[in-house]
Amino acid sequence: DAMVIQNPRYQVTQFGKPVTLSCSQTLNHNVMYWYQQKSSQAPKLLFHYYDKDFNNEADTPDNFQSRRPNTSFCFLDIRSPGLGDTAMYLCATSRDAGTAQETQYFGPGTRLLVL
Amino acid sequence: DAKTTQPNSMESNEEEPVHLPCNHSTISGTDYIHWYRQLPSQGPEYVIHGLTSNVNNRMASLAIAEDRKSSTLILHRATLRDAAVYYCILIGDDKIIFGKGTRLHILP
Known about the structure:
The structure holds 2 protein chains of 2 kinds.
Chain A: E1 4-7, E2 10-13, E3 19-25, E4 31-37, E5 44-50, E6 53-56, E7 64-67, E8 73-78, E9 87-94, E10 105-106, E11 110-114
Parallel strand pairs in A: 2-11
Antiparallel strand pairs in A: 1-3, 3-8, 4-5, 4-9, 5-6, 7-8, 9-10, 9-11
Chain B: E1 9-13, E2 18-23, E3 32-38, E4 45-50, E5 55-56, E6 61-64, E7 70-75, E8 84-92, E9 95-98, E10 102-107
Parallel strand pairs in B: 1-10
Antiparallel strand pairs in B: 2-7, 3-4, 3-8, 5-6, 6-7, 8-9, 8-10
């Protein structure tokens, strides 16, 4: 009963070569989040969608973009990956963003390696 | 800016209680305290959350100090499957602030 699915689980790309990571959910949640987690560090929120409204964190580099074509799917695009973008990328969902009580449901993550 | 502080690592024996502390002295009045844990090679999973009162669920208990500047996650009877990184997180209006996490080792 997978609820938040991320594809691929592992991705290798070359320096500067655009890459897209995919997330889908079967929960019909309004909110989808993207986090970056570097080795031995806590997850760092990049941005989130509340329905179709995009909310970028202030310190997220312009190199990172996102698309949400429908409720179920959300994509993370890295336009020109650098070596420092090697990380685990986590997608999460929550039913609503209007309350700080909402539980987030995380996918298993995509481990990205930039060579 | 609000932040959370957690010990880097802790050890506990199997079948004993575990108390995982978190300091959040700059917490705002409307911030909720959430705990998630992350097993190796997996995404974080929800454990428990609270605002002011202590909370219990099937996984754990959360004890929140009266001044809300600290909290403690309590695992009543640790098993080997509880070995993970435990994150204390403040979630409020327009903010999600992760602590650096405590790596919990369970000794058989």
